[in-house]
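User: My advisor, Dr. K., asked me to get a structural model of this assembly before our group meeting. I'm new to this, so sorry if the format is off. These are the inputs:
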Amino acid sequence: MRTIFYIVRKEFKQVFRNKSMLPMIFVMPIIQLLILANATTFEIKNINFGVLDLDKSPLSIRLASKFEASPYFIRTDDPHSQKDAEEGILKGLSKMTLIIPKNFEKDLIKENTAEVQFLINAIDGSAAGLIAAYSQNIVRDFNIDEGMNLINVITPVQTSAISVSYLHWYNPELDYITFMVPGILVLLVTFIGMFLSSMSIVKEKEIGTIEQINVTPIKKYEFIIGKLTPFFIIALFELSFGLFIGKLVFDIPFNGSLTLIFLFAAVYLVAVLSIGLVISTFADTQQQAMFISWFVLVIFLLMSGLFTPIQSMPMWAQRITWFNPIAYFIDAMRMVLLKGSGFADISKHFLIMTVYSTVVTAFAVFRYKKVN
Amino acid sequence: MNEDIIITEDLTKKFGSFIACDKISFSVKKGEIFGFLGANGAGKTTAIRMLCGLILPTSGKATIGGFDIYKDTEKIKLNIGYMSQKFSLYEDLTVKENIQFYGGIYRLSPKDIKERSKQLIGELGLESSENSLIKSLPLGWRQKLAFSIAIQHEPKIVFLDEPTSGVDPVTRRQFWDLIYKAAGRGISVFVTTHYMDEAEYCGRVSMMVAGKIEAMGTPKELKSRFNSGSMYEVFLHLARGAK
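Assistant: The format is fine. Below is the predicted structure of the whole assembly, which you can bring to the meeting.
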């Protein structure tokens, strides 16, 4: 046990004596948190749109201004013809064009039905889906306002499958910052932890001190635990700091128990740091360790459910996410912080993470070889 | 004083088809300074790495302090010290911190660590720099410190892999004083070097050429056997023989 204490003390001294380390650990993540929390939103605002009003009737003008009044749309150039409208979308001048056909008002009054068309730029499929949904909502409002229920919408984009509704329940204002901050915190803690740990053993290989360690009677598990503990403490501290900033700046809800969060984080970090140490035992240079960590982290990150829901991934990809620790922690964070879930609700996550940590740490101990 | 600390018998290490150490057999006694000489690539470092338990031999037998190098590697590690040609101290830690760290790893008690670090710093005259980072020390001082740290747990034997390369003659002399002091306390010293003048300081030397031990004996014996005035000539004689 005392041996572990000496390694931990040495690692801490080395980390904090490195002048670039402190800002890297404490300033960078906060900047990332502040930027990312505000930037990563699924909401689309300020959509440029144009109106091709071929009817020029009071009703058509009222419909157009209804769009204009929405916080989501900004009316830019109105096209002069259908061709003009298509070109505008092609050139990216507008994301959506509302086309109101001739006799819109007349049809509406006489035949109780009329059609409008939306041209939507669907390069970004999910954005297009949202634009279509917003547009239909506005038309629906218009119908209600005008006491009609008549306008049919023709749109080239399928609009049925937008599943934002599950958010409404635990995040009533559909506040994306609330939704994103817990996930971003997971990312920051993971990145710092994995980079630090993946560099640590290979650094000693590079400067040659690993040989000196390997001729000592140090035990393999002592070395691994000694390497892991400082980064574990730093990452937990980082998480507390991030949660504090999250509360202070973004007022994220703490509906569940913070103890539970930290308990889960502890198990989770052992897994992540051990992955880093395993990488470190494979790599020959710090540069290699960086690249391998980056490779692993990018896959983990983009398949974590932070930006895109896991449920919408193809089945084979969903299976890969079963092995993604980040996915479990983000889910657990959101459940506990936003939904107020208790231990029983995340017990499955807990169990999986515990097994995961045990296996990876054991593998790290196995991979670290004192004898070649 | 006749206890053998190292006994090797036909110790061999192959890397693929390349034979780095070819059936080397020798013994080192308690308190003896055993010089392991040879040109670069002769297999000195491979031999030392096998004896320290950093790599496993391909075949042959060896015991260190009575422990088998295949089975008891961890027991051996408690009883040996090692200082490699690569730098072995942590440059971003201070003198004192390095002493404390290695003392802790060798499971010395906190009281022992305190006493020994004080004594060690005193012996090396490093009182004024005990809180300086290693990277601010000149190379010679670092090497002396590395040696003292390698024997602070009083091992039965210390392995030195080219400890004086790149060090000025005065410091080399001081370094050898430390080696004599350690040997006087009963610590065997196994030292590789390619400075032939240093070979003269050893109790016994072995000359390694292309993986084999070509000659072994006291410097005096070897010089008379090869009819040479210095160890340098002995070395040239053997090395030319190999080609």
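One thing worth pointing out at the meeting: Chain B has two domains: 4-79+157-242, 89-154.

User: Perfect, thanks a lot.
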